[in-house]
């Protein structure tokens, strides 16, 4: 499963953990990195000193490379970037915006920069501005999402840029890994799958909500705000739908959403908390160590490819 991105990021498998706010702490990042993928600490909306402490903690838990995911809508984004420069974090991924103004400085300290992009236009711009790779994320993903599906976005981004493309959104097992590679991706990013791991600090109610979820339970709210968010259906999403149906103001909608992700992740409020998760939630039915998740992804990939070879080799599929 070696691809060019493994060398760029100094990792064994081209498997990146999604940068999930409140969920992706030093514990999860270190577990994924120790399992030879790339773990990420999510800065989310957290203050810079929290991010710095997580980086320091991660360094006590792993000697492998890990990264920080910077959420560009955060009020602390500039301070978080200062911490990243100071700590010389090896890899930065970004979400929910254009990281252009930070790229030059990140490159000057040797940090690899992988922006998450929801479109061909942003992917091309990121390549021009010096990104090392792009993470093209389809609308199947959890949390803040773009419009295009992974199936349509990946090949279009692959054709538009010369830097490696990592596929994200809807990836939960090795069938999707092979599909992503078939579309031209050099690697994959998984969020929801790693959330349901032993090392993830999210409350067990959060993990159980994902395990219980069926195929159509990860729905989108907030389209009217310009920041659509995919979460597991619950009382919060129904209240949100009601507000959106009566064309409530952005302020009212923001008030309803405030603190809800934290309530779900830390306190286990599965009813009125924001259970961000991707559409692949319906496929995920267990909690296991990150090491097992990665080994299964890697080991089953050959079986999937052999199954596909049947179509080409003219062999019987018995
Ligand atoms: O960022 C994510 N997922 C997230 S961030 C988050 S915290 C949050 N909560 C509520 C509202 C907003 C954020 C929860 N989940 N994924 C990566 C991602 N990036 N998805 C879409 C984008 C994106 C969108 C527009 C990236 C760039 C972009 O560019 C706009 C521009 O400025 O050109």
Please explain how this structure is put together.
By secondary structure, the protein is of the alpha/beta class. It has two domains: 10-201, Aldolase class I (TIM Barrel); 204-280, no CATH class. Helices cover 45% and strands 14% of the residues. The strands form two sheets. It has an eight-stranded parallel sheet with strand order 1-9-8-6-5-4-3-2. Strands 7-11-10 form a three-stranded antiparallel sheet, with helices on one face. The chain is globular, with a radius of gyration of 19 Å. The structure holds ligand TUI. Ligand TUI is lined by residues 21, 44, 71, 73, 95-98, 116-118, 122, 137, 143-146, 227, 229, 276.
Briefly, what is this?
The chain has 318 residues and is α/β, with parallel strands linked by helices. The chain has helices at 4-9, 26-34, 48-61, 77-87, 100-108, 120-128, 150-160, 174-182, 192-195, 204-212, 235-245, 250-257, 260-267, 290-313; strands spanning 15-17, 39-42, 66-71, 91-95, 112-117, 134-137, 143-144, 165-168, 187-190, 218-221, 229-232. The protein has 2 domains: 10-201, Alpha-Beta Barrel (TIM Barrel), CATH 3.20.20.70; 204-280, no CATH class.
CATH level-3 fold name of the largest domain: TIM Barrel
Q: Radius of gyration from the CA trace?
A: 19 Å
> How does CATH name the architecture of the largest domain?
Alpha-Beta Barrel
What percentage of residues falls in helices of 4 or more residues? 40-55%
- Which ligands, by name, code or SMILES, are bound? ligand TUI
N-to-C SSE series? HEHEHEHEHEHEEHEHEHHEEHHHH
Distance between the termini: 26 Å
Shape annotation: globular
Under CATH at level 1, the class of the largest domain stands as Alpha Beta
The poorly predicted ranges are none
